[in-house]
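[audit] Reproducing an earlier prediction to check determinism. Same input, same settings, fresh worker. If the tokens differ from the archived copy the diff job will pick it up downstream; this log only records the rerun itself.
[audit] input (262 residues):
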Amino acid sequence: MNEFSPAFDGQVTKYRGEINFYLTMRDFYARVAKAGLPLAFPSIADRPCLKLREMGDPTLLVKGCAIIPNDAEFDEDESFFFLTGANGGGKTTFLRGVAVNLILTLAGAPVFASSGDVWPFSAVYTHFPADEKFTGSGRLVEEAMRADEIISAAKRGAFVFLNETYSGTDAERGLELTLSAARALRGKGVMGLYVTHFHEVADHDFPMLNTVIDAADPSHRTFKIMKSSALRSSFARDILRKYGLDARSLERKPERKKEVRA
């Protein structure tokens, strides 16, 4: 060992990890090709944005689940989205799909989409509910501590993913913390996607994404994600459109004629 150890070149042996990465990715993409899913190398954008067309969450392939394609579009005008909607409607799947495909792009790998344009973000931060046992301080404190670390560390050019953050408290307090975190991140020039069950965020100054419900069967989950304002207002617009009305029609309340009895 003493005789031959100088012969080992550290510049060569350090490539073992990289080779293992490429072999693992090769096997994974072989499964993707066999499943007939779209793959593409996104273009590198010259302005901050993340645009993925017909994007899918590749982790669903590992789980053996069907992949429903969705478009994702973030730019300087609409840089931080809230995503709300029905439980089981695909919110976390969409968030995870955007995050995984962004990381694949930054690793120089193809993404699960038909095409894309992605800015080379400097960092990616994620905040998911912790599964581990808490240290006695409670869920809210644990979530707040981790969220504060992200808010403090994230700088312009980063992308942040938050999933049901501050869900360990009541609605009023949770909404307050949610809006405060989102405004702090957006104010720093950070792009982001925030999944939340606090539907009241739609009443504030953020662009919204919502899960799409089958109008013929509200219990049916389409797993499609669309830009929208408040979920409740989107249903209202559908009703107005159905009867050929608009918002002004609701403001003009016809006066009822008094009934005259003989």
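[audit] rerun output stored. Observation attached for the diff report: Confidence is low (pLDDT under 50) at residues 230-239, 255-260.
[audit] end
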